Amino acid sequence: MAKALDGQSILLLAVNGLFVLSGALSGTFLNIFLWKSKQDYAMIGWFTISQQIALGLTFWIAGKWVKEHNKMNSLRVGTALSGLFYLLVLVAGQDAVQYIWPLGLLLGAALGFFWLAFNVVTFEVTDTGNRDLFNGWIGLLGSVTGIVGPWFSGWIISRMQDDAGYRLIFTISLCIYGVAVVFSFFLKKRKPQGNYQWGEPVRELARPGSPWRRTALGLAAQGLREGVYSFLIVLLVYEATRQEWKLGQFSLITSAVSLVTFWVAGKWLKPRYRYAGMLAGALLLAGFMVPLLWSLKYGMLLIMGIGTAVVMPLYLIPMVSVSFDLMGTSQENAEKRVELMVLRELCLMSGRLLGIFLYVAVLSVSDTPKTVTWLIVGLGFAPVLSWLFMRQQLKEIRK
């Protein structure tokens, strides 16, 4: 029977909501801001690669701090560094495109500090009885912020001249990160959890019969799609319309659909339904990408976005919940939750980097619209690989 969320879980959701809102306000248009300074698909790819490298390294290195000291400080540092990133972008202005690597590394480190602490605390304040509900609420908040943030940003940017709109939005994000830091002080300090084992992720994958072997491949396949889609869909919508408010409209519509579907999935997608639900979600996610082979116009992109928003919860909630449940299968695994969280992120990072490197390599040969389309459609089938790798765990849960 599903359990209700307690006060700490709700407060953690609030901090997450503020962090994601700030990212939705500015993050949606960050790549567009860089793109307008230098229209280079590969440049955006390298910017994302620098983020992913810093993100993975930060997870691994900060794991010692999170396990042996106050993980809430990691959460606050991640939020503060995110604010610093947008402050530097404000100072650099259009010259920010000249500092792709240092800015990308800073943003990746900020995200690493925040999400490592957030994910570990999420594991501690939830259990199998309410984890799907909690993850459903995360998706719901992400959808709400996805509705409000990009639409508001696009509206502001389109009504102000030059870069004034971008500068205002980046400033607002900076302020919201400050509010999130304040909220984080109301979260209870979590006790240290023992000594951090630097090599545990590798040892776990090397252990015969470890369920993390299959899960690692599933997570890498998830990252294969995520890495490229995190920036390319936004660029395609902007390229099709050349209007920021249209991009905001795209995010508003697709996020409004996600709001409903994540709420429904969080409420009704029980563990026993994950096997069939994730398979259906993975196949439909791939299917909605195929029509892009015929058109990259705004209308077709919007249909793809709406379809993806409808079925994404079927795929994503089991992906998140299964890996978190593996951390609680025994007292030993629970005690290694930080190291296993690092393992989870390194797997995702590996997949994202592989996808983006593939993207950069393909575009170095040909950067025609047709090439980009075939690449994005091909990567759209990665969720099916995730299901194939993780189907055994999903079967065990179904029994």
Overview of this protein structure:
- It is a multi-pass membrane protein.
- It is found in: Cell membrane.
- InterPro entries: MFS, MFS_trans_sf, Sugar_transport-like.
- Keywords: Membrane, Transmembrane, Transmembrane helix.
- It holds the Pfam family MFS_1.
- The chain is mostly helical and 399 residues long.
- It has a single domain, classed as Up-down Bundle (Growth Hormone, Chain: A), CATH 1.20.1250.
- Helix content is 81%, strand content 0%.
- It has 15 helices and no strands.
- Helix 2 crosses helix 4.
- The longest helix has 31 residues.
- It is globular, with a radius of gyration of 20 Å.
- It starts with 6 loop residues before the first helix and ends with a helix.
- The model has no long low-confidence stretch (mean pLDDT 88).
